[in-house]
Every structure is written in C-alpha cells, then in structure tokens.
C-alpha cells in the first residue's frame, strides 16, 4: 500500500487547521492519514482559547503503535509546542522511521496570534528537527524567528532560505504570503540547485486559516504517493490555491475561516474513469 502519511501535530477543535486540516487534505488527495496528536487546542475561527499538551509517554505510544502496525510512506510534523515534545518526536522518528520523508512545518503562532511554540524551543527545533527534515515549510515570521533577521522582500527571502539550508534542512519551501502585493511568491530551494520561484496572483479571501498545515500535508501526501520532492511541492501548491479559491465565498464562523479542502481535486494516483 502506498500513500500512508503519519501526521504528528496538534488538534484544532474548530476544524480549520492542525490535525483536522491535515487529514482533510491528505484524504482529498487520495492518501491515507494517520495521526499522533501532540496537543489539544480549544480553538475556533476567532482564535485559540486554550491549549492542553498531550503527555509525552502517550505521544510516543501513538507514534509507536502506528509505525509498528501500519508504517508510513511520509511523515508530516506540525505543532510541537515545546522542547520536550520536539525531543520525543525526533527520537521516535529516528528509531521507527529512518529514511521516511519528513515534511516539517515549524508551527509557531496561530492565525489569530496565539503562540503555539514556546520561544526557547526554537533552538531545539533547529538542533533536532531541521537536520532530519526532507523539506522545511516556514512562513516568513517563522523563517525570521529561525534565521534571526527580518525578511522584508523577495531578495531577503533568498537569503533566508539559504540560511535555513545552512541550519541543516535538506530543502526549504519558504512561503511569501505575508509580503504585500498582488502576487504571492514562494521559494523552493535545495543545496546545489537553482532556486525555484513559485508565483501566483493573490486570491482575495478571508478564509485562509490552516493554509500552512494544509500545504505541508499536501506535500507529504504527494510524497507518500510516490512523487519526487519538487513535483510534490508543485502539486501541493496547486491544490492549496484551488482550496483557497473555492473556499473564499463561504462564511464559516465569525473570524478567520478555513479553506475548502474537499473541492474535489483529482487524486494523482488514480486512473481516469
């Protein structure tokens, strides 16, 4: 069986981001999602109202029982909350999933501004998670926190992506959606290869909660289905653009609404009818 994706991340009770968005994206793309939940959040479109970490022994057990029975063709990490959680997750991946492609989304702050990673854990993330990641998928604020300098334009994005590679990541998809303008530019970089500029018109929508979670899970799904990394990034980016566009006119809640994960994308591994 191909297409098995283990998602190690936090739960969003509002359904727009976190494990819930991850599972929707993976399923929509024809892959099979499995989970190890790192934390529970009391969350809706207006923000995060509470966070309850999962005990580390139970987190480790979730990863162990999934890997021992089901296995995985790709792994995605999202919210890891603190240093102890990062250490536990990295230990389990090293022990139970060596060589399995890892998509690491360095979740630090929720869309509404609530911190999802304690500040001191950033160093642990750099030391433990980045070196084992097949691809790192930060947005600009996350990249700035990891690099230690401001990223105010596309030129600085190139510098930031190279700095993240220097920290140990094997590849970086740096998302430029926080920059102003009518065009959104993302950069995909790998050591020794030309940077890939991925640009698209900005879609006017207030429903963009969970875009980072969704994109990283879509990359993991395509990797699990057998695509190479560059192609997985391209396909995942195409998926999320359609999910944003089709979700733009829908009102869900009273704040930052979700994407339309189930807009009926064509599963890449299925034959046409």
Describe this structure in words.
This protein has 273 residues and is α/β, with parallel strands linked by helices. The chain has one domain (4-247): Ribokinase (UDP-N-acetylmuramoyl-L-alanine:D-glutamate ligase), CATH 3.40.1190.20. Helix content is 37%, strand content 20%. It is built from 8 helices and 9 strands. It has helices at residues 18-28, 56-69, 83-96, 121-129, 140-147, 154-166, 211-224, 229-247; strands at residues 4-12, 32-44, 47-53, 74-77, 102-104, 135-136, 172-174, 183-189, 196-201. Strands 3-2-1-4-5-6 form a 6-stranded mixed beta sheet. α3 links the parallel β4 and β5 (102-104). α1 crosses α7 (211-224) and α2 runs parallel beside α3 (83-96). It is globular, with a radius of gyration of 17 Å.
Question: How much is the radius of gyration in Å?
Answer: 17 Å
Class based on secondary structure composition and strand pairing: alpha/beta
Number of helices: 8
CATH topology descriptor: UDP-N-acetylmuramoyl-L-alanine:D-glutamate ligase
Number of domains: 1
For this structure, the quaternary state is single chain
Terminal residue distance: 21 Å
Strand content: 15-25%
The overall average pLDDT, rounded, is 93
Got a strand count?
Answer: 9
Give me the CATH superfamily: Ribokinase
With strands numbered from the N-terminus, the spatial order across the biggest sheet is: 3-2-1-4-5-6
Order of helices and strands, N to C? EHEEHEHEHEHHEEEHH
- Shape-level CATH architecture: 3-Layer(aba) Sandwich
Q: How would a textbook summarize the main sheet?
A: 6 strands, mixed
Helix content: 25-40%
Q: Low-confidence stretches at least 5 residues in length (pLDDT < 50)?
A: 267-273
